[in-house]
Each structure stands twice: as C-alpha cells, then as structure tokens.
Design brief:
The structure holds 2 protein chains of 2 kinds. Chain A is of the alpha/beta class. In chain A, 37% of the residues lie in helices and 24% in strands. In chain B, strand 12 and strand 13 form a beta hairpin. The chains are: A alpha/beta, B alpha/beta. At the A-B interface, helix 2 of A face helix 1, strand 8, strand 9 and helix 6 of B.
Chain lengths: 252, 196
C-alpha cells in the first residue's frame, strides 16, 4: 500500500543549513549532509532543501550542495528556492537532485512548467504554491517569499500547474506557517480534490495529531515541516508510530 | 568487476552512480557497444519519457545491442518499461521487446493520484534479487505508467490493483522502483544484483 510521506524541510544559505537546528550528538548542525543523513536514518521519507541564498554565487553553491547530499543520501530529495531557468533545473538534476521545486518563476511565466515537464518529465517537477487567506478574496497565491500578492486564486493556480505538467504540488499555507496550530485543512483539501497529482501539505504543523488530520481530513499525500523536526519537538519515528495507530499507512 | 551504465541521456544517472559508489563499486557510464558487451554487469536506469528514450537508443543502435546481452542486466524505472513490447506513452511507442508486456497508464482518481509517487511495499517476491527481503519492505516509486502482472513478474506492488514492481527474463532483471533511492532495502537489492 502506498504510504503517506513525512518530509523534513531544511533551509540552506551559502551551502549551510540555517535556522535553529538543535540535535544532540550532531557535531555540526550546519552541515546539510550530516543533517540529511540523520533524518534519513530516523525514517524521513524524503527531504526538501530550500535555498535562501541571495548572492550571485547561489547557483554554484547549490549545485555543490546537491552533489554532496546525493552522494550520501539514499532517499529522494527536492531542491527549491529561486530556481528560474531550464539550465538551473538541468544542473541540479544532473548532479543528483531527484526533484526541483519552482515557485515565483512559474507564476511569472507559467509556460516554464510545460517546458520543464517536457524536457525532464513531470515526475521531477514540483510546483510550490504559497497561499494566504483573507476574508474578502479567500485563498490567494503569494510569491517572492510571501511579499507579493499575485491575486491568483490558490485552487485555480494549482489546477493550472497540474494541467501544465507539474508532477506534484507543494502547498504552503502562509496563514498557518509558524503558528503550530495545524495545517490549513480547508485549502489543502480543496487543492487535493482539484488535482490528480500528489499534494504535499506545509505550514502550521505543531503536533502529531496535525499530521493525522491533514492526511485523514484533507487527503494530503505528504506532510512537510521544519522547526518541529529541527528542534526535536517531534521525532519522525514517534510521529509515524502515532500515524500508524491512527490507521494511516506509513513506512516504519 | 566491470559495471556499465547505459548512457542514452535517460535522465538522472548520477544517483545510480552514487549508490554504487556507496557500495564501493565503480561503474562506467557509456554507450560504447564493446564496453557494454564486455561488462560483467549492465545497469539500465531511466527517467522521463519513453518515446524520446527510444529515439536516443535507436540513434546509438542500442536497441539492437541490448537484447543480445547475456550478462546480468538490471533495468530501473523507465529502464524497466523500455524492456517491454509497447507503451501507451507518447501516443503509443514500440519498445525493445525483450519482455512480453505492454505498458499502460494508471487511471488517475481522487484517491489514487498519478504519478504513483512514494513508498509502497513489495509483495509476491521471488528470486535472488529479493533475498533477505519480505512483504514488509518498502521501496520508492515514481511513475505514471506500469507493466501488468504476468509470468515474468518477480515482485508486485498494488495501486490499488497489483502491477509488476519487478520483472525477469533469463539474465534481464528490472525494477519499476528506484533501488538507488529506497534506503537500506534498495541497497540490499542492488547488492543482491551485483552478486548474480
């Protein structure tokens, strides 16, 4: 039976992991390779690396990181963060990334999704969509790290991305991100029903029950989180045991 | 041991090279017929789209070479599907015809998304490739098309109907999942293959 996936997300800057990683026994928590290997051993199903480097060295450091991670890691990983061209994607995939996620560049020029899917296959093209709720407009898509309102409806955009050839949607609720009050079940469920490709839910995970809810109520195919894993608040194994007790298929 | 990985621009072969490196094994990425014929083992990974893969194989006459190989051969993902007779992909494409299956697309439903992406368990395992493994073991799949179950099937997975997770005909072994990305279970399968 296909299992629900648990995906830790690592922020990297200049080839180093950033943002509060507190793991006992990890000599260098800033080393993405060591951290990735640790998550893999604990039972993570996949990893996402989000590159927040803003310098013009970005591409070279990211390609080097991908190579180092791919050399060590025996589970799949996705790379995202400011990826905008076919050449960017090719360099990352050829160096061992399994999937690449695109966000702002796809909204700026949606044909990019078609081009990437035709060139590399849908299976390695993830469209990351950042959605925020307001009472007047509902769920709208934001870009540029959440600073720019595109005015696009979240469900419509995810449907378009899927039709253009995306292999997966990584849906982040900016309204829930950082709250630890749980995933956005309504928009996750709406997107999951609107597309026939897998949906990764992101933003708001604070407890094991939050994952149960997003799988059972919103039909997400995978759940992604960062800080609760990095700070050791929830172990991946104990999360999966909880999910199994709730009748959710997981790889243990 | 000489290991050849077939080079036909069939997608991400770097992960396969790294997986072999972790096992302490060096491999050569090549389209050279002599190098491939001489190798002790041949790996045939693949991702992406079947019609363009077949075009590239034909351009290098690999469609004629591969069926004649006699050493242990392992197709991975698209590299498994290409061993069949025909696929629905690309509006219908003829394949290498080494194994007697026709590749078809999963019907997408709200409950069963396509691609079939993620970790699924193997069932009905048989043969040396799966020595030491059981139906409790999970491997990583990413695919939209599949080979139905037949007498050539040596492992099944279900989504929701059973399909061929692995096939074999004589020296030709192939797996639909990514051995190189399936954690310790995938590593064991690669090790088992290298021992054939």
């Amino acid at each position: 039976m296909l299992t629900k996936r648990i995906i830790p997300c690592l922020d990297v800057k200049d080839g180093r992991t950033v943002k509060g990683v507190r793991f006992e026994g990890l000599r260098d928590a800033g080393d993405p390779v060591a951290l990735a290997a640790r998550y893999a051993r604990e039972g993570a199903d996949e990893l996402v690396f989000l590159d927040i480097t803003a310098t013009n060295q970005k591409r070279a450091t990211l390609v080097a990181l991908v190579r180092d991670v791919a050399r060590e890691l025996d589970i799949p990983f996705t790379v995202g963060g400011g990826i905008g061209t076919v050449a960017d994607v090719e360099a990352l995939l050829m160096n061992g990334a399994d999937k690449v996620s695109i966000n702002s560049a796809a909204l700026a020029r949606p044909e990019l999704i078609d081009e990437l899917a035709a060139r590399f296959g849908s299976q390695c093209i993830v469209v990351a969509a950042d959605a925020r709720y307001n009472d007047a407009d509902g769920w709208l898509i934001y870009t540029r790290a959440g600073t720019h309102n595109t005015g696009r409806d979240a469900v419509q955009w995810c449907r378009e991305a899927a039709e253009r050839g995306a292999g997966e949607i990584l849906l982040t609720s900016m309204s829930n991100d950082g709250t630890k009050d749980g995933f956005a079940l309504d928009i996750t469920g709406a997107v999951s029903r609107a597309v026939t490709i897998p949906v990764i839910a992101s933003g708001g995970a604070g407890s094991k029950q939050d994952f149960t809810n997003v799988f059972q109520q919103a039909h997400a195919d995978a759940g992604l989180a960062a800080s609760i894993f990095h700070f050791g608040e929830i172990g991946i194994r104990e999360l999966k045991e909880h999910l199994r007790q709730d009748g959710i298929a997981v790889r243990l | 041991m000489e290991i050849a990985i077939i080079d036909y621009k069939g997608g991400n072969v770097q992960s396969v090279l790294f997986a072999l490196e972790r096992l302490g094994v060096q491999a050569t990425l090549t389209a050279d017929h002599d190098v491939i014929r001489r190798a002790d083992k041949v790996l045939f990974p693949g991702e992406g789209e079947a019609a363009s893969a077949m075009r590239e194989l034909r351009a290098q006459d690999l469609h004629e070479l591969l069926p004649t190989l006699t050493q242990p051969f392992l197709g991975i993902c698209l590299g498994m599907q290409l061993l069949g007779r025909h696929t629905q992909e690309g509006g219908g494409t003829d394949l290498l015809g080494i194994l007697p299956f026709d590749v078809v697309r999963f019907p997408a439903t709200p409950e069963y998304k396509v691609p079939h992406m993620g970790w699924n368990n193997l069932q009905a395992l048989r043969g040396p490739l799966f020595e030491g493994l059981s139906a409790e073991d999970y491997v990583y799949f990413v695919h939209s098309y599949y080979a139905p179950v037949g007498e050539y099937t040596i492992a099944e997975a279900a989504y929701p109907t059973p399909f061929s997770a692995a096939v074999q005909h004589e020296n030709f072994y192939a797996v639909q999942f990514h051995t190189e990305k399936s954690g310790p279970v995938g590593t064991r399968i690669l090790e088992n293959f290298l021992k054939l």
